[in-house]
Write a structure and sequence with these properties.
419 residues; alpha/beta; Rossmann fold; seven-stranded mixed beta sheet; five-stranded mixed beta sheet
Length: 419
Amino acid sequence: MAFATRLTPGMAARWRGAGLWSDETFATVLARRVRATPDREALTDGTRRLSYRELAHGIDRMAARLRALGIGAGDVVTIQLPNWVEFALVFFALERLGAVAVTVSVDFRSRELEYIMRFADSKMLVCCGTFRDFDHAAMAAELKPRLPALAIIGIVRGAARAGMVSLDDVAAARGEPAGFVPVAMDADAVMRMAFTSGTTGNPKGVMHSHNTTLAAARILNGDLGLCADDVMMAWLPLGLNWGYLTLIQSLLAGAKAVLLDRFTPTAALDLIARERVTYIPTAPASLTAILQQGDFERSDLTSLRFVVSGGASAPVETIRAWRRAAPGVLLELLGMLETGYQAYTRPTDDPERVAGSVGVPASHMGLRLVDAEGRDVAAGQEGEICCDGPSVHLGYHNNPGANAEAFLPTAGSAAAISA
């Protein structure tokens, strides 16, 4: 499939000239990590642990299997998986084939999934057998006759029904696939697409390249000083943007990612202590749930360096309660699928002064507040947030109306988002 994007030579030259875009892709990032620290643990979901070398081998094994099933350059594959290591294997395998990933929440059901796969022209769906007592394989079987482009259904951790293919043997195997030759993907090409929530209409397909995605991860890692010594927890869904970006941040830093597929305060506290977690992105509701856990005060949180709250406004009382009870720094963040990380508080801020604020713009990101005519509003006035930076998306897929509405004609790389 060909993707029409808003990328121009001038935009590419601007961000490359600033050193914020390059020819680097996820595959080249991972290859560098394998050369430097092949045996360092990269990823665990509680069922298995993968070193950087084992992760790279697993990705190429999955890519070889998908190629044998008919997936190639330009094909779209929808991934609906929990926070399992198989998500990483499938997602990163698609780059090795020049294919495009569409990531969706495991909470989506037939209506949402059918719309997204039809709109994206998905050739393959990769889903789990069952999760949280829901039969995803049955849903996939029901959808397949209604989606002419859907040629293949791959099943993870479950029995494959008639016409489906199990991918469990690929995930369980070891070593490199014999004779596999990967595709070299352009860092500016569309490599992933995710869909907005659709609260004001049909969901919109947000297109990202390696460069827009890696830029978001590099900026936050750099601003917070995240590094190979960190252990990053992801209970936020990998199928949604923030959870996925956390996985990218971890691999980019050469750190370890710890995946949790079902958040409960007990499970989260246990993993934080056992895996010596240093970094957690989360929503305020999870912080509240942990604070209300009966044995919270006896939990070992001494490894924590950063907890980043976003997705909703955190009550000041919750912020203060967490800061009293837990070590490290609690930051508040504003971000979205279209732009990556836009603004956040900093470790050096006075906690009381910034409580309830999302801080200042991320490094290399420009923010403006404008009125309905695109003019800057006066200080203290409400307006729409316009974001300009290397992590801003490449446009909405096959939706010129949405693109015309979102991007200011006077600042082609600034996306306007309602505040």
